[in-house]
Amino acid sequence: MRRAVRGLLGLAGLLALGEVVGRSGLAPEGYLPPTSVVLTRLVELLGDQSFVLDVVATVLAWAIALGIAVAVAVPLGLLLGSVPVLRHGTRAVVEFLRPIPSVALIPLAIVVFGMGPDTKIFLAVYAAVWPILFNTIYAMDEVDPLLVDTARSFGLNRGQVLARVVLPNAAPFVATGIRLSASIALILVVSVELLAGAGAGIGKFILEASSGSGRMDLVFAGTLVAGVLGYLVNAGFEGLQRKLFAWSATTGEVPQ
Predict the structure, then answer these.
(1) DSSP 8-class letter at 102
(2) What confidence tens digit (pLDDT) does each residue in 183-211 have?
(3) Do 201 and 190 touch, CB atoms closer than 8 A?
(4) Less packed terminus of the chain by CB within 10 Å, N or C?
(5) Residue 144, SS3 per DSSP
(6) What is the per-residue pLDDT across 44-74, written as a single tens digit (0 to 9) for each?
(7) What are phi and psi of 12, to 5 degrees?
(8) Dihedral (CA of 69, 72, 73, 75) sign
(9) What sign results for the dihedral spanned by CA atoms 189, 192, 193, 199?
(10) CATH number of 35-142+174-244, picked from 3.40.50.720, 1.10.150.130, 1.10.3720.10, 3.40.1410.10
């Protein structure tokens, strides 16, 4: 409760600062609307069916991208973490692909998938795969060999050891990777909508509001919705992780 109160006080302070700066005249009129104006537009947008559909489009693309990333990265991470020869053999390829910014692939994605939602889903998957993959591989390294040897001494085969020993110990790390990737996927979906106008979504709404009429109040309102979604996604996954893996002594974080 104390942590929540501190968070609310910080948010209230930020909103108050936005109100003061917006009405101070430091920026040209219309460029930095006061918080009260932004919140008013936000309430109006929540009653606008077109904007609600944009939010739904963004959330749906995010959910699909995250699901695909999990389906790809977890099995691949388990495979690479279990087979050292395969892991070392693919390291050069992985280290070449991982640093490539997803937004740099926007032109290629548009050529391949067009301007529809497939483009933002593909780029979000590309960005979200890596945290899950590396957390899963790292989790395999952190499994206590003594636990594996003990399970084998009791007659468990390779599949049973994987299901009963390796996966439960790796789960907190994998969950952390999914939580990190959830935020990254949302950022990529909104960014691609904003930069490429790939399908309906919050990013495309912000792009249209900023061009032409230059409605910065709508821009900030749309940005606020994206920020709230990001906060809810991270808080939701963090709470779920804490509840499911309260037994784990590790945080599941990969050292940097």
Answers:
(1) G
(2) 999 999 998 888 876 678 898 888 888 87
(3) yes
(4) C
(5) coil
(6) 888 888 999 999 999 999 999 999 999 999 9
(7) -60, -40
(8) positive
(9) negative
(10) 1.10.3720.10
